[in-house]
Amino acid sequence: MGRKHKEEGHPNHERWLITYSDLITLLMIFFIVMYSMSKVDAAKFRAVAESLSVTLGGGSASKIDLATSPSGPSIIDSGSNSQVPGQSSKPPVNPQMDKPESTPSEGNGKNDLENLTIEGVKAKLDQFAFENNIQTKLVSSIEERGLVVSIQDTLLFASGSAEITPAARNILKKISTVLTASSNYIKVEGHTDNLPIHTGKFPSNWELSVLRATNVVQILTTEGGIDSQRLSATGYGEYRPIADNKTELGRAANRRVDLVILRSKYELVEPGAKSP
Questions:
Q1: Dihedral pair phi/psi, residue 234, rounded to 5°
Q2: What's the whole-number mean pLDDT along residues 13-37?
């Protein structure tokens, strides 16, 4: 009986397709995972972009030219004669401006954006003060409660008066275009030195400080375009000095109007504020 030889099967030349399909599947899974890890929340990204645009621009495009520099141009045309001879055309570098403001709630996205806005407003006001050679009369500083912009009384009023000068009205209107970069509350605080005043209109420094603050608020709202609900006026008289009243230089520093851009966490203590 003859032995039958088992026929050998033909070799499969398409086995490489199995390996290839496995590789393609793995690559597809890899890119899906990478895409899911890098996906950006569109709403959050838009909020960050809009906040940075406002911060760097200091306001809408109709008020501030965004193409000049990140800190923006001078908000008042200073002219060729406003620069002190021999003085650099660039504003002095403030090392504190390069450091992020730390707050008790650091890391929260909303507060990070608020810090950017506050520092952006400060940068524009410092630029304005430098270009108009009034660095000693308009000084801004970042404190725990927010941004404090101190304006010396001689920049706004005549001695012993609460009437805002025409030049001061223009300055306040220009400052308003920067303050509109944020929606935070603004407290306007009037301060005096400790020299007594006794006139028919101002029996004491209380009345003088309150009326000065109120008049500044009126300019910020009626001519500066700031929402009245964001503003309040307070008079501290001589009782919140920042310098020694025993010297003329100290008394000059104490006679001031402070614009305080409050951090949002302090808005909760304002009358009528709603809980978040």
A1: -140, 140
A2: 82
Q: What is the mean pLDDT of the chain?
A: 78
What angle is formed at CA 51 by the lines to CA 49 and CA 53, rounded to 5 degrees?
70
Query: By C-alpha distance, which of 261, 260, 252 is closest to 153?
Result: 252
- Which residue, among 61, 117, 70, 95, has the nearest Cα to 261 in the 3D structure? 117
CA within 13 Å, CB half, 124: 34
Residue with tokens 């951090």: 263
Distance of CA 16 to the CA centre of its chain: 62
**Residue 180: count of CB within 10 angstroms of its CB:** 21
Q: Which CATH class is domain 48-59+106-269?
A: alpha beta
Contacts of 175 (CB under 8 A, 6+ apart): 75, 125, 128, 149, 224, 259
Determine the Cα–Cα distance for residues 155 and 28; give it in Å rounded to an integer.
Answer: 67
Give residue limits of the domains in the chain. Answer: 48-59+106-269
In the predicted structure, residue 245 carries a pLDDT above the cut 90: yes
